[in-house]
Write a structure and sequence with these properties.
The protein has 341 residues and is α/β, with parallel strands linked by helices. The protein folds into two domains: 2-138 and 325-340, Rossmann fold (3-Layer(aba) Sandwich); 149-324, Glycogen Phosphorylase B (Rossmann fold, 3-Layer(aba) Sandwich), CATH 3.40.50.2000. 43% of the residues lie in helices and 16% in strands. The protein has 14 helices and twelve strands. It has helices at residues 14-28, 44-54, 85-88, 94-106, 115-124, 149-156, 184-193, 208-219, 232-241, 256-263, 274-277, 292-303, 306-323, 326-336; strands at 2-7, 32-37, 58-62, 78-81, 109-112, 132-134, 166-171, 197-202, 224-227, 244-247, 268-271, 287-289. Strands 2-1-3-4-5-6 form a six-stranded parallel β-sheet. It has a six-stranded parallel β-sheet with strand order 9-8-7-10-11-12, with helices on both faces.
Length: 341
């Protein structure tokens, strides 16, 4: 089949990565899958014209509102993949809630990353329960073998002669929902007392106005560094060299950055929100913090307890292998797409 996949495709964001991975799964089954950026289209009529002009036979959308609204009233069958902010945040807005319900009613199927996400959707739209399936994100990491660690530190402005450098990395698209400034004050205060600890925030600009705030804040925050996004293979290599990966989001669907760190044998410290708690068991596969002060306490305990660190990375790796199989994800999407024939 000739398939259209509509998603928010800002480079090196979670949605773009997920879309590319699903496209690969479908093309491996012999389909043609074309990605289109949801931000380029105003409404369903533009997508309807695209479908007619490019002769698509079926469609998929990532994010029930941002992508799904464009397929409303579509002449071809379609499926939906929940994004995270659609179910966690957009559901609170009356008009978005109405649109998402209408889209879900038309969709042949919907995919949720977690059981919790499915339950939340079912509670809002009970009629859709039998068409929502759960498929966790499939994870495959590919760290670069030619990654230059010294150049990475130099670009970040991190002194290379620091004794016992302890680098934390926070990976996110720079927008308010990801809350990259949540830990900046406490981390900078910690750095003043222990100059070997550093926090690198890495990610693409999603909200330019917010990025200006981030840059101004970080200028006044010793020990915290802002880097532009880097190719995924290099990012994976950088993660392997860091002490821990951090997630401070207000809301998450399922963080690929967290899962990739787990797969790379790197400890994760994540804000205790439903999306993170769904994949991290505290002090077993990672550490969950309720506030910035607890983040520092947990970080210090991890730095001083090699046994705990080893336990966490071992169990996290096993968890990813068992529950986030790339091969299992491929089989699921190749099976679901048959419902659109």
């Amino acid at each position: 089949m000739r398939l259209l996949l509509v998603a928010c495709l800002r480079p090196r964001t979670g949605n773009a990565t997920t879309a590319a991975r699903i496209r690969d799964h479908l093309e491996a089954a012999g389909h043609t899958c074309i990605l289109k950026d949801a931000f380029r289209y105003e409404g369903p009529s533009e997508i309807a014209n695209l479908i007619s002009a490019e002769k698509y036979e079926a469609a998929l959308a990532i994010h029930l509102y941002k992508g799904g609204r464009l397929l409303q009233g579509s002449s071809i069958p379609f499926g939906i993949i929940f994004g995270g902010t659609d179910i966690n945040e957009d559901i609170k807005h009356e008009e978005k809630h109405r649109v998402m319900g209408a889209v879900l009613e038309e969709a042949r199927f919907a995919v949720a990353f977690t059981e919790k996400m499915k339950e939340m959707a079912e509670s809002e739209w009970p009629y859709a329960g039998n068409k929502i399936c759960v498929q966790t994100q499939g994870i495959m990491t590919t760290p670069s073998t030619t990654f230059n660690w010294k150049r990475f530190l130099q670009n970040a402005g991190i002194p290379q002669d620091t004794d016992n450098l302890c680098l934390f990395i926070l990976i996110c698209g720079l927008r308010r929902i990801k809350d990259p400034l949540y830990l900046v004050d406490v981390f900078s205060e910690w750095h003043r007392k222990e100059p070997n600890v550093h926090l690198a925030i890495i990610g693409p600009t999603v909200d330019p106005l917010f990025v200006s705030e981030v840059k101004e804040k970080i200028k006044r925050s010793p020990g915290v560094h802002l880097l532009q996004e880097i190719p995924q293979d290099d990012l994976h290599a950088a993660v392997k060299r860091c002490f821990a990966v951090v997630n401070s989001s207000i809301s998450e669907g399922m963080s690929a950055a967290v899962l990739e760190a787990m797969d790379l044998d790197v400890p994760v410290l994540a804000r205790n929100i439903p999306g993170n708690a769904a994949i991290i068991k505290h002090k077993d596969t990672g550490l969950l913090f309720a506030d910035p002060q607890e983040f520092v306490l947990l970080s210090k305990s991890l730095m001083n307890d090699p046994t705990l660190e080893k336990k966490i990375v071992t169990r996290a790796k096993d968890y990813v292998k068992k529950h986030h199989s790339w091969e299992c994800e491929r089989k699921t999407y190749q099976s679901l797409i048959l419902r659109l024939q």
